[in-house]
Structures are given as structure tokens and as C-alpha cells.
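To: structure desk
From: M.T.
Subject: fold request, one chain
Message: Could you run this one when you get a chance? Sequence is below, nothing fancy, just the single chain.
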Amino acid sequence: MRKADFGLVALDDEQLVPVDRVGDFEVRPGFYEINGATALPNGVNFTIHSHYAVSCELLLYHNGEKEPYAVLPFPDSYRIGKVYSMIVFGLKITDFEYAYRLDGPYNPERGLLFDKSKPLLDPYARAVTGQREWGKNPNEGYGYRGCVVVNDFDWGKDCQPRHSMQDMIIYEMHVRGFTRHSSSGVEHPGTFAGVREKIPYLKSLGITAVELMPVFEFDETMAKREVNGRTLLDYWGYNTVSFFSPNTSYSSQQELNREGEELKNLIRELHRNGIEVILDVVFNHTAEGNEKGPFFSFKGFDNKIYYMLTPDGHYYNFSGCGNTLNCNHPVVQQIILECLRYWTVTYRIDGFRFDLASILGRSEDGLPMNQPPLLKNLAADPVLGDVKLIAEAWDAGGLYQVGSFPAWNRWAEWNGKYRDDMRSFLKGDYWFAPAAAKRISGSPDLYTGQYRGYNSSINFLTCHDGFTLYDLYSYNNKHNWDNGWDNTDGADDNRSWNCGAEGDTDDPEIIRLRKRLIRNACAVLMCSRGTPMFLEGDEFCNTRYGNNNPYCQDNEISWLDWGDLERNRDIFEFFRYMIRFRKAHPAIRGSEYPSKLGFPFISVHGEIPWKGEITENSRFLGVLFAGFDPERGEEDLVYLAINVYWEAQEIYLPPLPEGYKWRVCVNTGEENGLPEEVYVEDRFWMRDRSVAVFRI
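Reply: Done. C-alpha cells follow.
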């Protein structure tokens, strides 16, 4: 005797008996509270909802076939409220794919687009068929289908690391690009398995979390085109096709009806190595685009509910991608919350970064809300209680909320002001010193009140958007011609400096200067209060050849060239050292214990400590972190000294009580930036454009 247990109900086989026949299939009313397609001991439960539809059909396809082999209308009595649910007996989940067709009113000016001839992908599908092979779409022309996924993965004693925000070091990664290049040396390049093969490297680097660019199912062929002899695809994956489905082309092998297992194996192995997994999720728009875009799911289920529409039925475009999800409609709130719970429970995800998160705070007419219910519900949800919630606190409609995002003492943010102010400062704009002092100190001007102080600040200089760290000091201007838009796409405000030559150069002085600035950036990032994040490959001078928006470049522009690791081993070792240094000094991260020597937790200094204020005329910035380390039973003092000016200068170090001396640990003015630690007196000579770090 087998038992089906879905949390809501537990039934023995005998109780799951047919009561009706639809066509050649025996059926009965299903489980109305279980969305999607779910395998039962002797059949499959199908549940879907639509507010405005008048009827619904289930379409069953043999795998890979164009036309359905069966069409099952839901009997009228199988609808409760706006929910259709039906158990179909005798189905083997390995034998079919499925979709729906809905009928209802067609009135575009009112946002109603029902078309009973259009097959629709289940918004709750756990996997999408036909997407297995990267760059190819065998279903092109007749839509997407779902399949039923078995969820019996054995997590064993998997223990999620659950690092505190102040102990996190985030590494942003594109799953395919991380190992796709032949130089990666992995057996399964461009896949979840390929990333798994590189876990020893990630552990050696010292990061504590990977932030994966979109891994929900997307169709990279949707905007396929040829430019300059290259095939361009939707490489980044920010146009979601299915929120509950993993991207099957990121798996190294076919996983029919077990989609997601390779990703789960990757997550489990990362956890075993103390590395958390954060997913970059896109709930601001979908791949259906605007009026000219495809029609394959939400448009056919309830266009008027799922998308923000103008009074005459057109799509608001606060995402810059054609449409905008109507996130604060109760139905849309429900599917987003259910999706995040699903990934949290089923995939053991540790955190979510929300792309263009300000859209999640807009009302149904597009206006910003004071207390958006979706953001509040996510902050308070018990299932999500331990996951990190990270907002990209702006959108493409001009809403910029860094420091004003509705956080409920729960949300963290990509600190875009850290990126902008610190990029300007570190390239030599010394007049940014007052702003830089705030950013290094955890941005206290931004993160008060509803925030959790510096634990709300994700500090970054680079991410997938914009220049890599190497390109930041190699290009004055973007070079996006290969994207096919006449270099008009991508940000113009890069705050970069090429050090005297645009792009690659053989000039040894320029090369040395670029590496010094890269070390400066790394040292300051790792010595800033808040959570540091950097882009894959920054640790060994990865370049995108000046392209600051390679969203469509599935080629050497985007793929990591692992040969750069050996060519720039000195930079890699510097990153490793600074990560270890940060971990070793709780005073930087945010010590709970004050220094017993009387120093404040953080203090900001000019050339002469404790005298004067940092102004726009300051040519030096020093930040002193102080605390007491109870584990070692000793004082923890770190002094970060920054000379972004183009001339050398002498500085004074903060005076210490008798018995204590400063030791220099980092000096980017020297060749590799890592001198042998020596005690120094109260004065220190700093080279132009250099950073030094001292400890007691």
C-alpha cells in the first residue's frame, strides 16, 4: 500500500480512484492547493488558475512531438473559484510533456488577450522541455512545454553554512562563462558540473558565497542574431521563461523528469566546503516582452493581472525589457513567494539577489509605494527567515532607492553609491575623499533606521554590469561595437581610467600602474565595513576587451580565460591574502567588542591623525578600525592608508600606547604589494597612487 503525502493531505492508493472519464483518460478532481503538475502513485495532479478564463484544456504531448496526442478539457465541476484541478490516472511522467489552452474574453484595450488556439506553458512548471541543448530550440514556432519532475533528492546531513552578512565575501559568477573556455580544464565546461569541479579553486581563493547569475529557465535563442561574424544570444539570461524551472542547458547530461539534480549536487558540495549559494532572480519582467513580444504563458493566463498595463492596455516598461511584472497584485505576490519558498526548500538556496528590485515596490499603476506588501511579506516570511534578501535598489524607470529601499530591517542592498564614489576616488579624484570615508566606514549616512547598519551594504566595484576590474583601469570608454547597437548600449558613466593607453599595451610602466590600481581596489574593498562582492575573474585580471555590456556575447569576450590565472598569479595571490586578512580581523568586519585601548570602532584621519577633517581638498585618507578579539584575547587594530594622489607623500600613523607598534602588511607601492611584515615608526612614506595597510 503506497501513500501520497503532500503536506496538505495524505491518501492511500485506494482513495485516489477515478470518478469521471475525459476522452480516453480516467480522472477525478485534484488537489486545488498544489499548483503545477505533481506525480501521484497512480497518476498526475494538474492544478492551474486564471481569474478571467472561462475554460481550460490540458494538452498532452509525446516527448518532442509538435501536436498533442490528447486534449483534456477540465469539466466545469473541476473548478473551484478560479482554480482548475484534475488528477489524470494512468500517466507515466517519462512519457509526456504538457501545456494548457485557455479560453476567455479578447479585449486588448482592457488587457484581456485570451486565445484558445495558443498552447501555454504552466507558470508553475518544474522544468521546461526542449531547452536542453544550449543555443538550439527544437520547439521553436510552437511554444514551450512543461514536464513533471521527481523531487526525491537526498540532501543527507547537508548543513547550510549560514554565514553572517559581515562574514560574507561574495563572488558573482555566470555558470556557463565560468568554465566554458577551453583553458578551464574541466571535464564538463559551461555547466553546473563544471563549476563543481572548480570548488577547490573557490575554496583556495577564500570566498564564502557564490552569486549565480540567472539559473531559472531562459531561452538564449530568443533574440538570436549575427553581428560581425558572431552568433549573439541572450547569454546573461535575464529574460525568464519559467520561474520554477532550472536552466536545463546548464546541466552536463540529460535529466528528464529529474531536472535540477546536477544543480542540487553542486549546491550540496558548495555547502560542504563552507560556500553559500545566492541566486540572481528576475521578478521585474518576463521573456514575453511587450505587444510585439512572444505569447507563451502569463499573457495567456491572465495578462491583466501579471503585467502592469497602461489604461489603454499597453505595457509599462520600468524594466527596460518590454514589460513589467505587476508584483504587488495579490496573485503575483503569491507566485513570487511560492517560487522563493520552493527554491529555498527544494534547492537549499541561501540567498536571493533581486534584479531591479525597485520594481517590486511599485503599485499596479507603476507608482512607488511607501510600504510595498510584497517586500514586507518576503521580509517576514518564516520559510525565508534565514535566507539573505539582497536588492538591486533601482530600476530602468528612474527609481533609485539606494539608502531608501523599504528594508524592514531585513533587506540588504547592492550599494551603488559605494561603487560610484569609490571608483571615482580610487582612480585619482581625490575630492571624493569625504564620500569615500563614508563608504569605507559602512555608509552610515545611508543605512540607518529601517536598515541593519553596515550589514545592509553590499560593497562592490565591479559586477556583471559594467567593466571588469582590469578593464576599469584599461579603458576610458566602453567598446561595445560587437553588440550590434553602434556602441549605444551599456553605461557611459564608468568612472574608469586607462592609465595612459586605451586597451592592451606593451608599455611596462602602464602595466605596472594598472596592477597597482587593481591591488588598491582589492585592498580597499576588503578593508571596507559591509559585505564585499567582486566579479568572477577580477582576481586574475579578466578582461572583456572594454565591452561593459556583454549580455549577448557567448564567446571569448565573456568566458573566463583561465590562462590569465598563471599570467597574473601575483594579483591572484594578492586577492587571496586580502581575503585572509579580512577574515583574520573582526575589527574590519564589525567587532562586537570595543578596543580596551580607548579607540572608537571606526575613525577617519588625514595626513596627521586626529587633526582636522576630511574635505574635498584632502589628498590622503586614513581609516582606523579598532576592536578587541576575544578569541585571541588581544587588541585588533587595523589602519587603512590611501593615497590616490599622483604624487608621493609622507603620512603619520595614529599614535599607539606604550608597548604597541604598527606593522605594515600591505604596501601596493612595492612591486607585489605584499612586503615582509616589519614594524614601522610613526611616519610612513607613501608612493603616488598607493594603498598601505597596517596592524598592531
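Reply (cont.): Residues 1-10 have pLDDT under 50 and may be disordered. Let me know if you need anything else for the meeting.
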